[in-house]
Please model this.
Amino acid sequence: MSTKEKLVSRAVELFNENGIEYVGMRELAADLNMRVGNVTYYFPTKDDLVMEIISQLRDLNSKTIGPDCSSIIDFLSMYKQVFHNQYQYRCLLLSFVHLVSRHPLFAGNYFATEAKRREALRSHLASMVKNNYLSTSLIGDKVELVVSHITLISRFWLSEARISYVNWTTEQTIAHYLNLLSDILLPYATDEGKKQVDNFRKELGGDLPKTWK
Amino acid sequence: MSTKEKLVSRAVELFNENGIEYVGMRELAADLNMRVGNVTYYFPTKDDLVMEIISQLRDLNSKTIGPDCSSIIDFLSMYKQVFHNQYQYRCLLLSFVHLVSRHPLFAGNYFATEAKRREALRSHLASMVKNNYLSTSLIGDKVELVVSHITLISRFWLSEARISYVNWTTEQTIAHYLNLLSDILLPYATDEGKKQVDNFRKELGGDLPKTWK
DNA sequence: AAATAAATTAGGACATTGTCCTAATTTAGC
DNA sequence: GCTAAATTAGGACAATGTCCTAATTTATTT
Model:
């Protein structure tokens, strides 16, 4: 593993643990028995380092989000993997708003992939309708509403979990938000679709957090 | 207006414009023709200042979120006001995750009010069921799912809008997320409830963003 | 193998940040 | 008008990201 790779790899770990803005360049360097100047040689600014990490997550999700999504089970399983990817790079999701709203480079990068993701989501929904798992009434504005729900959940579940469900395990948390996702599809699910949602939820069952106090 | 009040008032403005972490204590002081030492006299740490702003929003929302919520219209109108309150203190919502996950004081404060809000939400839903606007099938785990959807939306709509819908007006943005909110209730709405949702959406209609490109 | 060029590492300097401390100044109370 | 409190000003501190230059290591060429 090259120095640059070690740098990124350890940065992700430390950023995940303590948050991007709470891990200094010197701290990262010291952790790897390096000096600051050495880090800035590979990544002149901290944003450059973050940008590298962003690309890694984007690539990972691009592999996960395929074009085909014939059933609800496929769809939810795919998002399960997306959630795990995001957890692996949770530092990004937890700082995304600040990163994007400040840095034009982040913003441009984000807009491009976001538009693609939204379009992919539409196509997934359409194919679930075609395969008779979702009702044909899911058209027009209703599609956009479902898409909006799903993007909101998949973008902020980690943030909410961080502040509201701190004592949950990762598996519990992911199960909870997958449950929410399935809940968004449910109103449009056909009988066959409902069966799939039920099956998926049964698999979730063991992980779902029990108590609401 | 006392010096302290002027300080808080201007801080909210600057924080809203540029983000809490991007407005320095010296910048705030200079804006009011003061010096840093003078600011720290009233607020020894920046977190103290933020905490004061947090209390203001909490008080404002406490006034808005009443115990009675007999109809869906009432419910959605109430949340419309909540959204406007949040917009008024948007700097907080945009930095909440970092604030809460770092500072134990914020966290404790947040947990207490959050539990109350969630409980209030359950009671609102129950009263809408009682008044026959929502189906009696809305019980148990389903209530918790609806509550989870609503809390997610009302906590992160501003964050998402900041990064995804930057070109929308405030009214458009709020209309969009109120639409999402109503969409969560819709599957459980009775015929009478559906009428209310329709009416509410008609009022929204003019503000709702048109294009999804 | 030696010399030269390139890549990498180290270390210090800079402006900026939040925070703290002390002295100066203003205000209020008697 | 004097004393004490409240307020304001100003400097100092450690820590941050960033930048720049010198030292050192590694690779390439002669």
Summary: The domain at 1-44 of chain A is CATH 1.10.10.60 (Arc Repressor Mutant, subunit A). Chain A touches chain B through 39 residues (CB under 8 Å).
